[in-house]
Write a structure and sequence with these properties.
By secondary structure, the protein is an alpha/beta fold. The chain has 11 helices and 10 strands. The strands form 2 sheets. A 6-stranded mixed β-sheet has the order 6-7-8-3-9-10. A 4-stranded antiparallel β-sheet has the order 2-1-4-5, with no helix packed on it. The protein is globular. Bound molecules: adenosine-5'-triphosphate (ATP) and magnesium ion (MG).
Length: 280
């Protein structure tokens, strides 16, 4: 595997003295789809904003494709074309008079020909299901629509790595699933994807590569099973099991009905485990 992004002993202190990141050693492998879990204030957004130099490390370093990130204008522009970050709050990202112009801004800044800029913006809007609001003012959109348009804005730049800070927050259930499916498909086409999320029900459906952050430190990395079967990590990170896993935990704890596979984390796995039991 090739490491596309790495942080080495990354620390970050805000001007008011808050130590938001405390020595993070992290590797993002090319072609993977990875999720970062952590409670409010754990440091997810602060961490992501280091990936393309929006935040500059207090100490430690960020490396993109093995090269330390530099903070001069040219290096930052290059980094931001490679590593696209969708902010947690779309209002921090959207600013153009119309949605189409907003989504076109990134590719336009890359100096692409006008036709291609327009095509990329239209394609990106279609992918997130927002073609019908192309001519609207971004500030007139609903929260979920803004979120999708913000994703389109980064998508249109076709970055190598797409980093999304809570991409499903504020989306309706089908909207959240369709955005996750879009990310899954982009990953299947080769894009490296990293998201932060609180949505423990959706995560196991789309990624088996998780990192858990608490108090500015990554306390565990592993598969969904590794994380969700570790009670200490679950408690420290204030995580809960997916609802379907909680059902099987109840069977185990209250009825002594144990499934050898452990607690299923998706409806599909639960279905398979039950079917196996019923037809045994
Ligand atoms: N501009 C800032 N100035 C000072 N402290 C900040 C600033 N932004 C964030 N923090 C602090 O840094 C820590 C990490 O915040 P961060 O926003 O990275 O958390 P998060 O994991 O993204 O949380 P959430 O799930 O709520 O989005 C928190 O203690 C927060 O209060
Ligand atoms: Mg955040």
């Amino acid at each position: 595997m090739t490491t596309i992004l790495e942080t080495k002993d990354l620390t970050f202190k805000y001007p008011d003295g808050t130590e938001a990141l405390k020595g993070i050693n992290f590797k993002l492998e090319e072609g993977t789809m990875v999720a970062l879990l952590g409670h409010n204030g754990a440091g997810k957004s602060t961490f992501f904003l280091h990936f393309n130099g929006i935040n500059e490390a207090t100490s430690g370093s960020v490396e993109i494709e093995g090269k330390p990130l530099k903070y001069d204008k040219k290096s930052l522009l290059e980094a931001r074309q490679k590593i696209g970050i969708v902010f947690q709050n779309p209002d921090d990202q959207l600013f153009a008079p119309t949605v189409l112009e907003d989504v076109a801004f990134g590719p336009m800044n890359m100096g692409l020909p006008e036709d291609e800029v327009r095509q990329r913006a239209l394609d990106a809007l279609e992918k997130v299901g927002m073609s019908h609001v192309a001519n609207k003012a971004p500030h007139h959109l609903s929260g979920g629509q803004k979120k999708r348009v913000a994703i389109a804005g980064i998508l249109a730049m076709k970055p190598k790595v797409m980093v999304l800070d809570e991409p499903t927050s504020g989306l309706d259930p089908n909207g959240a699933s369709s955005i996750m499916q879009l990310l899954y498909d982009l990953n299947a086409e080769g894009m490296t994807i990293m998201i932060s999320t609180h949505d423990v029900d959706l995560v196991p459906l789309y990624s088996d590569n998780l990192h858990v952050i608490v108090g500015g430190q990554i306390i565990k990395s592993g598969t969904c099973k590794d994380i969700f079967s570790d009670p200490e990590v679950m408690e420290e990170a204030d995580l809960r099991l997916p609802w379907i896993g909680q059902l099987f935990e109840k069977f185990d704890k209250e009825d002594g009905i144990v499934f050898e596979e452990g607690y299923p984390l998706t409806v599909g796995d639960a279905h398979d485990a039950l079917l196996k039991r019923i037809t045994k």
